[in-house]
Design goal:
disordered C terminus; 9 helices; Transferase(Phosphotransferase), domain 1; alpha+beta; globular
Length: 285
């Protein structure tokens, strides 16, 4: 059963393993996506022990396609947020944010930079747990490195300011762990405001506001502690942002239980056709 279609000929299907378990099968054209698929396979093979990373099953090729197989999740964070009430998100938002940051901490402790965080790349599993997904643009830092030097990559509207600056100047960008944190702050705001973006709703204005460090919608967060927390994560100066482990210790999240308020209904994973990667998506290794 087809669940959805993405960019570059990518499709996601429901599959059934020999043990009867349902999985999501991400099918990608070799010609268009072979490097991205190989990279995602490499990253997922390193991330098998976190409850906050999508669970990897297998990677297969034929003459035309590559197939990445992961556990089937309930829905994307984007769908989840739009389907819930403000009350639900106020009560469960801190838990959801803590799980996302815990997944990010797990990656960063392994030296992995996600580099394409956005609401459609966070999945919600059958127990209501947040799981980071889509590692096609991710990179592993070499030992003693803190920065990936690369052409600017990601999804328009969900890029940190330093990536947008490099994209505008057509220069090699510098991506750090705190670059992921910048976007995690945008996602935290998205959760707490039922789908708003701290840097504006219009994509063109949003990109300019991210670049200039102008979170025009931040005042929409009425809770002072939540506002201070998000403001810290999306700070324009990369050195003033926290690392994931520091963000997890902030009072807004410090006493939140990981698994409170979980729910059980299951629907399907959907690929978001509206979220397309920047066309200048070329890595310099």
């Amino acid at each position: 059963m087809l669940l959805g279609n993405g960019s570059k000929g990518t499709s996601v299907y429901v599959g059934i393993m020999e043990d009867g378990s349902e999985v999501a099968v991400k099918r990608m054209l070799q010609q268009a996506c072979d490097d991205i698929a190989e990279n995602e396979d490499k990253i997922l093979s390193l991330t098998t022990n976190s409850p906050f990373i999508v669970n990897y099953r297998n990677f297969v090729k034929d003459t035309t396609f590559v197939y990445l197989i992961v556990d089937l999740c309930e829905e994307t964070l984007k769908e989840h947020v739009h389907s819930k009430t403000f009350k639900h998100l106020r009560e469960n938002g801190p838990r959801m944010i803590k799980q996302i940051l815990s997944g990010l901490k797990f990656l960063h402790d392994l030296g992995i930079l996600h580099r394409d965080l956005k609401p459609s790349n966070v999945l919600v599993d059958i127990e209501g747990r947040m799981r980071l997904a889509d590692f096609g643009l991710s990179r592993v830092l070499n030992e003693n490195e803190s920065t990936v030097h690369t052409d600017p990559k990601g999804t328009l509207g969900w890029m940190p300011s330093e990536v947008i600056e490099a994209m505008n100047t057509k220069e090699i960008g510098r991506y750090k762990k705190k670059s992921d944190i910048h976007v995690a702050g945008m996602i935290a705001f998205f959760i707490l405001t039922k789908g708003e973006h701290p840097f504006g709703n219009c994509l063109h204005d949003r990109m300019a506001n991210i670049l200039n460090g102008n979170p025009v919608n931040l005042a929409n967060l009425e809770d002072l502690e939540a506002k201070q927390f998000v403001s810290w994560l999306i700070h324009h100066n990369i050195d003033d942002r926290p690392y994931a482990h520091e963000a997890l210790s902030y009072p807004f999240l410090d006493h939140v239980e990981f698994y409170e308020g979980l729910h059980k209904p299951i629907v399907s994973l959907v690929v978001d056709e509206d979220d397309e990667h920047d066309q200048h998506d070329m890595v310099v290794d």
